[in-house]
Please model this.
Amino acid sequence: MTTLEIMQRVKAASKKLTAFSSEDKNRALFCMAQALQENAETILAANAVDLANAQGKISDVMLDRLRLTKARIDAMAQGVGDVAKLDDPTGELLDSHTRADGLEIRKISVPLGVIAIIYESRPNVTSDAAALAIKSGNACILRCGKEAHGSAAAITKAMQEGLTAAGLPQEAVMLVEDTSRESANELMTGNGYIDLLIPRGGKGLISACVKNATVPCIETGTGICHIYVDKDADLEKALNIVENAKTSRPSVCNAAEVCLIDRAIAETFVPMLEKRLTEREIPVELRMDEICLAYAKNAKPAGETDFDTEFLDYILAVAAVDGVQGAAAHIDAHSTHHSEAIVTENEQAADFFCGAVDSAAVYVNASTRFTDGGEFGLGCEMGISTQKLHARGPMGLAELTTYKYVIRGNGNVR
Model:
C-alpha cells in the first residue's frame, strides 16, 4: 500500500473516531493491551530478525534500544492500559462566557485529527503513539526506521486487532510500509491529510522534519542534557545522580551528556566522579576541559564539539564553571533545551538555576532521566518537545488536542 493510500485511509478513519465515546476508546485500549500480550511471541520473533539484521550496523547501545523482551512487551501493554485509566482530554470545557446580548461563547477541547510520527529504532514508540492517539480521539500514521520495521509491523498488527475487537476502525492506526526517505518526505508534505507531524529520533531526522515539513511539526527530543554540581552540593548525592543520568540508559534523549562542576570543588569532586564512572562494569569515557583534566588520571581532553554532542553512549563531557551563574551561561550556550539539573543544598542557588535555565524540564537534586511521560504521570508520551509553542516537554494526551469555539445565540446579529 502506498504512503498516499495510507494517509487517505487514516484520514477517513479519523473522521469516524469522533463518534466514539470515552468508554469506547477505553475499551479499545484494553483490547489493544491484551492483543499485545497475546501476540508477544510473534512480536519477539519479528524483533529477533530485526536484531540479527542490525548486528554490526548499529552500536550496542542502539541495539539495546531496538531489543524487545517479554518484560518490555508487558511494560508496553501496561502503558497502553495506563492510558485508558487517564481522563479523556477531549470535550473538556476550557472556558466560557456569556455576552450582555445573551450570546454564549464556549471553548472546547477537540482532537487534532491525524498525527504522523516518524521515529527510528525504538519499537515501543509504536504502542505508545497508538495508545495516546486513540485516547485523545486522533488517528495516527507510524513511520519507523528500517531497523525496527519488522517489530513495528508486528506491534501495529496487534494494535489493529485490538481496535477491531472493540469495534473501532483498524485504519485509525497504520504503519507506513515504505522505509525510504520518500515516504518520510510524503508525510512531511502531507497537507490535507496530516494535522501534526512528530519526529522522534536523532538530530538529523529532527532537523530534516523541522526544515522540510509543510505540515505543522513539533521539534522534539535531541537532548544535550546537563547536570551542574554546585559548591554546596551533597557530593555523594551528586555522584548517584550523575551516574544514574548517564548510565541507566545512555541511548535515550533524557540521559546526561555534560557534567558541569563548580570550579571551587573541582579538585575534590573530579577524582570522585572519575572513580565512580570509570570503575563500573561498563566504564564511562570522560572528556574533560583543562581545569578538570588536571585533577583526573585517565580522562581524555575534551574536543571542540564534545559540549555540543548528544553522545547516546557511555561518554560524558565534563567542565568546570564559575558557580551557578557560569553553569547557566554554559547551558545557555550549549543546551538543546531538553532537561538540565542542579545538585545543591543551597536554595538560593537552586532558585537562580531554575529561573535562569530555559529548558523544558529543570531539576533540583534529581536525575534528568525522569523527563518521561510515564514518570510525569501522563501514561506514556508521544515525544518530548524542546520548542515553546503548542507543547513543551513530554507530550501526553492534552498536548494532542486543540480547541474550537462553540457559540450559541438566539437570533443574534452584528
